[in-house]
Amino acid sequence: MTDTRRRVKVYTLNEDRQWDDRGTGHVSSGYVERFKGTSLLVRAESDGSLLLESKINPNTAYQKQQDTLIVWSEAENYDLALSFQEKAGCDEIWEKICQVQGKDPSVDITQDVVDESEEERFDDMSSPGLELPPCELNRLEDLAELVASSLPSPLRREKLALAVENEGYIRKLLELFRVCEDLENREGLHHLYEIIKGIFLLNRTALFEVMFSDECIMDVIGCLEFDPALPQPRRHREFLTKTARFKEVIPISDPELRQKIHQTYRVQYIQDMVLPTPSVFEENMLSTLHSFIFFNKVEIVGMLQDDEKFLTDLFAQLTDEATDDDKRHELVNFLKEFCAFSQTLQPQNRDAFFKTLSNMGILPALEVILGMDDVQVRGAATDIFSYLVEYNPSMVREFVMQESQQNDDDILLINLIIEHMICDTDPELGGAVQLMGLLRTLVDPENMLATANKTEKTEFLSFFYKHCMHVLSAPLLANTTEEKPSKDDFQTSQLLALILELLTFCVEHHTYHIKNYIINKDILRRVLVLTASQHAFLALCALRFMRRIIGLKDEFYNRYIMRNFLFEPVIKAFLNNGSRYNLMNSAIIEMFEYVRVEDVKSLTAHIVENYWKALEDVDYVQTFKGLKLRYEQQRERQDNPKLDSMRSILRNHRFRRDARTLEDEEEMWFNTDEDDLEDGEAVVPPSDKMKSEEDLMEPISKFMERKKLKDTEDKEVLGKSSLSGRQNPSFKLSFSGSTKTSLSSPPSSASLNPGSPGSPGSPGSGARSSPSTTAVTTKGGLVGLVDYPDDDDEDEEEEDDGESKEEPLPPSKKSKLSS
């Protein structure tokens, strides 16, 4: 079988029953060994990657729609569609599918024989077709029952659809509808409602094309007005013909385009307003209706985009000062709908769409529209602006920066957006919330571009803080001139909360720009005035702002906070909150807990020195006592830097205090062979600086004085013993170095560094002065000391040197100097 390549777009149906574009490529059909059958293959036209590989299953129902679409289901909830650029390509692939399934290519759907019972299969063999009753008034009830009974079975549903299609049954039914309506035959109208609703659930494109034709669609809507569950019929046709008006803001010369727009609007109305909400079981039955609307919209956008004269006229009238407000209102609403339809385009087509709008001057046009007084027009312009920002924020940034070179700050597009956010009249500030989201997208460094020639982040943020930030912060500064907010109503508080949210975002994502602005304009002091607001959400926003600043651990910010005593309003808010256990209480405590845990020394000292008396009685949490302890430890280290240095040394060299750890390590010590010790068990790096600082040894000397008595006893015991061969010495000293002295020969005086605790001249040397009892490997001075407790007197060891046996040594205090 030869491959035929055709240009197609691949779509999949998502969970929201919307079609997602998976890319454009070329389709072919051929035998795939892995699937053991003929398959459809789509390879991307951009890089040749495989977009789709689907075996043509003999039992899968394929549907051909609108001459250029093939739709099918791969699994229970996985629908696929191929949209062909040319009808010829669609016909050719359709023939291949029908050839594999043994179907006539003239049909628009292949049979789905999944889920029918054995009884239905037997019925299928005995009765190949479904016979419809005559289309007469007295047979409507029979027809309604037939439709209802056929819907649960895929096989019967397919047979019913073929029968309705082949016999031209829909037009006959609509003629009966007109008769029943004239006769006011309510029972017949109710039966027709059930029949037409059932035909929708047959989910067949060929039937939809008949029902949605110009001569039939209004009668179809009329049938759906007479719901038996409602006491009175709906008036959908009256709305569509009298209330809903089609306005050509720009004349559309193409009659096919005009007809497609009318059809799409009415079908969308049927889906959203006329048809009852589908049940869980019926939802998948309307997938073809979703597809019909979706592809109609794609077609409309494509036809409009190709009409250059239409778009040129549209933007010319939008920007023309002579255009009256009503006309401009209609133009803006059309453009908004146009942008909404564009969301159905595939990515590369959507790129071309927005680039076309940009080239035609959509941003200057929006600037004019946003300056209008009409709230509805401004709302539509905001929606269009949101499409542009979400699509390409860099394009908007580039425009406003170029604009700033020619215009004053007051009329810049971005300042107009800020002013509309500030002046939103909606009590819930719905528009302000939307605009704040757009501003945050524009000032977000994450979506800013950096090229070799320029850095968008630097340029735009410099522009924003110079030309726009003062407009954004104006309501905040105007409302915080006193110790309490000058206006504390709900709407003002909501607006200030939005502004604070954006400023907090800037603190997190901008560096020196926001830092300079906060410190130079004293913004944090003004923000903390809002902690006195009666609205808790606003006070919490102010606390969150300060918490983000403290979280940066930036000393510039810290000095600014201390210099201006900016913890004072926080302490006041904490005390005014009293003993209430609420979010305010927790947020303030968390802020101080962060300072304590992160050991921010400057802020710890500032808080304790200035606010301790106000906080010392708070004992239901240990945060403030912990801060005081941190402060005292800090002062102690400042008063005694030598002790601080010693603590650092001991801490860095594992001064152990856990008894279990000591016992484990001591056991390891005595199980270690002496040969290993000679190679240096502990490695201590040399420290020439510490060797020259004799004062550093004073704390060690004091530490060792407690051992002098025991050390003297050890000296006497060892003096009486003649050490020959390898025995267990009372003290084991091990240093890293190149010089090694064995136990059998006394070390020279040069083996020990002067001033070290192991040398005769050092304080606390004691037993260490006996050369016959010490094994030393030395390179540098003593750095760490580990002292073990005296609870191991019951341990005794014996060693044999292999030649002579000595009497076991009496128990002695065992000490170890190690790293």
Provide structural commentary.
This protein has about 800 residues and is of the alpha+beta class. It contains 36 helices and eleven strands. Helix 3 (about 140-150) packs parallel to helix 6. The longest helix has 20 residues, at about 255-275. It is elongated, with a radius of gyration of 43 Å.
Short key terms for the protein model shown above:
single chain; 819 residues; alpha+beta; 7-stranded antiparallel beta sheet; two-stranded parallel sheet; disordered C terminus; ARM-type_fold; EVH1_PP4R3
Percent helix, as a range, is: 40-55%
Number of helices: 36
Q: How large is the share of residues in beta strands? A: 5-15%
Shape: elongated
Please tell me the overall pLDDT: 76
- N- and C-termini, Cα separation: 80 Å
Spatially, the strands of the biggest sheet line up as: 4-3-2-1-7-6-5
| Uncertain parts | 112-127, 654-662, 672-704, 713-819
* Major sheet details: 7 strands, antiparallel
Query: Nearest-angstrom radius of gyration?
Result: 43 Å
Number of DSSP strand runs: 11
Secondary-structure-based class equals alpha+beta
